[in-house]
Amino acid sequence: MKYKVAVAGLRMGDAWARSAVENPDTELVACYDKFFDENKLIDRKYYRSCGAVLVNSMEELCASDADIVIVSTPDHFHVEQSVMALKAGKHVICEKPLAPTVADCRKIIAAVRESGRFFMTGQVCRYAPGFRLAKKLCESGRIGELSYIECEYAHDYNYSRGFRNWRMDPQIRREGFLGGGCHALDLARWIAGDPAEVFAYMNHKILTDWPTCDTGVAVAKFPNDVIGRIFVSIGVKRPYTMRTVIYGTRGTIICDNTSPAIQIAEQELAEAAGKIDFGTIPVNISSHNVASELREFVDCLKENRQCPTDVWQGTRTVAFAEAALRSASSGKAEAVEEIMPQCGE
Ligand SMILES: NC(=O)c1ccc[n+]([C@@H]2O[C@H](COP(=O)([O-])OP(=O)(O)OC[C@H]3O[C@@H](n4cnc5c(N)ncnc54)[C@H](O)[C@@H]3O)[C@@H](O)[C@H]2O)c1
């Protein structure tokens, strides 16, 4: 049996739709985009040639016979559309960031709980080969005990404004520190655990015609006395990077999602070599590894287990961003809201 997949929002959603066509366990049955006619980048012919129906509303998408609905629309539609799909009895994959605020995320949490359906937040970095390998090396003890982590997200959004410029719309006020920065924030949480407290500075010197700060740096306290720094910029003039450096008591890892190798320096080897240096381990470059995300979600459905990037993980990453944004405006360190499942969740 193949899981039937429906996709809403067909830019990033195009990668999801294609993954659904290519995955042997799924088939693409329906697609919806609010601007099918206006958005010339949408390849309607392709979806039809794969047997998918193009529908005219989210309601129609939810009324289709899809098992899985993928919400890949701008962030501010995630709550409404995820909740609608869950209420219609669909399993849901929702793109990152889960929602613009923790309060919004809680509406999705409630719908997940009430529906009993499976849910994935599309935190794709956890599926990027370089980051997966880095995490595995940390867990295997190659760099000793984690001490300090630096995660960066730098991406010039001047060239990624979104269809009809929603990323820079003053009414929507999308926060870049959450919208793009959630990649780096989630990665730090994945490797170092949930931060208790964060202090941040943010400024607005590059994308001055955008409504929110374009650059920010946050320092945070993680469990086990680990400290970290998250740098996010949606304006800096350089190629896209997610450079991440992980320092342990016995080594260091440098990785990102666009390099064909990760670097690792290890005390144990240095002792034999008589000097410390970086060695490299090759990895595939697959920075937007949607195909792996879909594979993981399907495996979760088959094995009846919770997805590793579930609704709680998505919400905790939003809580981290929210605390950093609060700190940047209060000028004080801020506690990160603890997001705990309540009884029965
Ligand atoms: N995982 C990643 O690395 C990654 C990369 C890019 C975008 N994203 C996420 O994907 C989402 C979409 O971003 P994008 O880059 O594709 O934006 P985009 O503006 O390029 O495309 C959005 C698409 O959704 C359509 N749309 C707009 N409002 C809609 C609505 N209410 N219902 C249905 N369709 C609607 C638009 O016509 C457009 O085709 C965002 O949440 C973004 O954060 C994730």
What features would you describe in this structure?
With 345 residues, the protein is an alpha/beta fold. It folds into two domains: 3-124 and 289-307, NAD(P)-binding Rossmann-like Domain (Rossmann fold, 3-Layer(aba) Sandwich), CATH 3.40.50.720; 126-286 and 321-330, Dihydrodipicolinate Reductase, domain 2. Helix content is 33%, strand content 23%. The chain contains eleven helices and 15 strands. It has helices at residues 12-22, 44-49, 58-63, 78-87, 102-115, 129-139, 176-179, 182-192, 267-273, 290-303, 311-330; strands spanning 3-8, 26-32, 53-55, 68-71, 91-95, 119-122, 146-154, 197-203, 215-221, 227-233, 244-248, 251-255, 261-266, 279-282, 334-335. It has a nine-stranded mixed beta sheet. A six-stranded parallel beta sheet has the order 3-2-1-4-5-6, sandwiched between helices. Helix 4 packs parallel to helix 5 (102-115), helix 5 (102-115) runs antiparallel to helix 11 (311-330) and helix 8 (182-192) crosses helix 11. It is globular, with a radius of gyration of 20 Å. The mean pLDDT is 96. Bound molecules: nicotinamide-adenine-dinucleotide (NAD).
